[in-house]
Structures are given as C-alpha cells and as structure tokens.
Automatic annotation (TrEMBL):
UniProt-recorded Gene Ontology molecular function terms: transferase activity
UniProt keyword terms in alphabetical order: Transferase
Highest taxon of source: Bacteria
UniProt organism field: Paenibacillus durus ATCC 35681
Protein name: Uncharacterized protein
Length: 354
C-alpha cells in the first residue's frame, strides 16, 4: 500500500492555528497512517520557540526554497527532513543554484527531498537532468508536483509510468486541485506505481490537494486493499480537523458530509430499503455516519411508510396518500425537505381531522 504524505498541517500553520490544536490534528491524522507532514518553513517561523516541545519536529518535512535564508532557518529550527522547492522553468543554466542548495542541505539534513514544480507539460525525458543530482546528493525522493493543475488522470498515469522507468530514486506525486482532479490524478499516480501521494483532509489548502479521505476509501473499496487503517470515525475526525482550520464541512461533501447518505426521491428510498448497494458504494457505518431518509417534494408513499416504520408506526396506504399531498405542499413552500417534527405534526393534524 502506498504512503500518504500530509499537507493539512501545512495549511494549519499557514492559517496560524494554535499549536496545541495542530498537535491534536497531527495525532488524528496518524490514525490513518499519515506520519509525515510537509510544511513550508516560513509558515512555521512564528512557532519556532514552541515547536520543539510539541514533538512535531521529527514528523515535519520542512519545505524550503533554494535560498541560504530558508535553509539556514530550517537548520536553526532543528529539522532533519528537508524538501527543496525547484521550478522546472528555471532552466538548465540555473541548476548550479539547485546544486548549492542540495549541498547546503546535506550539511545538516538526514533526509533530502527534491520538490519539482511546473513539470506537468514537459516531456518525461526533460526530467532526466534531475536524476544525476538525486544520486549525487543522496536525495531520498523526488516529488513530482502538478502545482498548476495541468494534468488529467490519463496524462498523469502516462507521464509517471514513463518517469518510473528511468527513476534512480523513489518518486512521489503531489497535485493541486484547481480543476477538481487532484484525487483522480493521485489515484492515477498510484496505479502507475508511485508509492507516495500528497493529500490533505477534504483537499484543504490554498490550491487544494487530493482529498485524504477520498484516496483512503477509494483504495479500500475500489481496489479491495482492506488491510489499511480503520475508518469508522473518519467523518468525525475530518470534521474535527476542518473545524480547527475554521472550515465548515459541506453537508454533501463526498464520504464525510452529514447528508451524503441522505435519500429523498421515492425510487431511491425504495431501492435503498431493499438493497443499499444499489445506491451506496460503501456503507455509511464504514466512515462513522448513518443513512438518512429525507421527506420532501420528491418523496413517495413508500418513503413515508419507511419513515414511519423507523418510528415503529405503520402507515396505511390511504393515510400515506393524504399525508403525501400535505408533505409536498409544505416542502414546496419551505423550499427544502421537511423536518421530522414537521412531518409528525402533519400526521397528528391529519389524525385529528379524521
């Protein structure tokens, strides 16, 4: 199974989240096998007096520009894992600057990574200039970064498959999510044979990333890799992490939104009642959620009967027909599905009239 590299903590430092909350966030992420947190050094600078006591230093891979200032800051803060940022647009004439940065990093870092941006539209062969540098300076991994969201899953798979043929060290993939393809590209990279994928919870970040929970569950469900971490508290854990970032989880967010397993349409409800696998690729319990039956203008009598069975009440067919008319009228007026207390009120009022 490939290893997921976290960028959620990077976003937490960028947003100046309290260090205690960042430590709690890191502990939650470790439940899901995320043990390396890639963070830009300038985001951490304000925390430098306290970060060592938070026991995060050994778990952070410090991302730096190829400048003496960034490298000096990373060294002074005691980071042993350093990822050097490099733009592929810099051209071969500027490689001496990269070599100088690698040499400086080798003087103090136990692990050196090369983080290459702006390579998505170039031919894989143009990457060959970096492999000798990786060998010479003992680079642990080269990170292929689609920082401008130029890839689609087919191109990602093709490029990375080709790159792996000439790679002299392991390859890692990290993609931005400007076009909503980061998760798909991450999975394509995985299929191509890349063993390290950059993710963040719900894709959090200024440009977004592959959504951690989506990658985790796609691998578990679609590729049947069931030996990974348990996800039975995934929705709550993701909500707690996003809350620390001051991000509200959309109710229909894939896998972790509170209404993602909600069903309103009559034919959907009837199908789910008979066989949930007709509409649900995973069971809601697998991520710590519960199936919801919403009653609204799209509901049918079967939905109403099923809802009342949840309350241990049997609704006769003629009662259901009359009640459904009132439900649709109220839902249309409110412009939303009706709440349980509103449905019960309609039911009681109908019984009183009878």
């Amino acid at each position: 199974m490939a290893e997921l590299i976290d960028y959620t903590v990077d976003e937490a430092f960028r947003r100046s989240v309290d260090l205690e909350e960042i430590s709690a966030m890191a502990s939650l992420l470790q439940r899901y096998g995320l043990n390396v947190f890639d963070v830009y050094v300038r985001y951490i600078d304000a925390y430098r007096s306290a970060i060592a006591s938070a026991e995060l230093t050994d778990r952070i891979r410090c991302r730096v520009r190829p400048t003496a200032d960034d490298l000096s800051l990373a060294r002074s803060m005691g980071f042993s894992k350093v990822a050097i940022l490099w733009s592929n647009t810099s051209g071969p004439m500027a490689l001496s600057k990269l070599e100088a940065a690698l040499e400086a990093a080798r003087a103090f870092a136990e692990e050196i990574y090369l983080y290459i941006e702006d390579i998505s539209l170039t031919q894989p062969a143009s990457f060959d200039v970096y492999w000798p540098l990786a060998e010479r300076y003992g680079v642990k991994r080269v990170i292929y970064c689609d920082s401008k969201s130029r890839l689609d899953p087919l191109i990602a798979h093709s490029n990375l498959t080709e790159l792996l043929k000439s790679a002299t060290c392991p390859l890692e993939f990290c993609g931005a999510n400007l076009l909503g393809l980061a998760t798909a590209n991450g999975l394509a990279a995985w299929k191509a044979g890349v063993k390290y994928i950059g993710v963040s919870v719900a894709g959090a970040g200024s440009k977004g990333k592959a959504a951690m929970e989506e990658v985790l569950m796609a691998v578990k469900v679609l590729w049947k890799q069931t030996h990974g971490p348990s996800a039975h508290t995934l929705a709550d854990d993701c909500e707690a992490i996003l809350s620390a970032l001051n991000i509200k989880v959309p109710v229909h967010k894939a896998l972790i939104g509170r209404n993602v397993f909600a069903h309103e349409s009559g034919i959907h409800v009837d199908g789910v009642a008979k066989n949930p696998e007709l509409y649900e690729v995973i069971r809601p319990e697998e991520v710590g959620l519960a199936r919801k039956l919403l009653i609204g203008k799209h509901s049918g009598t079967s939905s109403l009967k099923h809802k009342f069975r949840e309350w241990d009440l049997e609704l006769a067919s003629d009662e259901a027909v009359l009640l459904l008319e009132q439900v649709r009228e109220l839902a249309e007026r409110r412009k939303r599905p009706i709440q349980d207390n509103e449905l019960m009120e309609l039911y009681k009022r109908q019984n009183e009239l009878e």
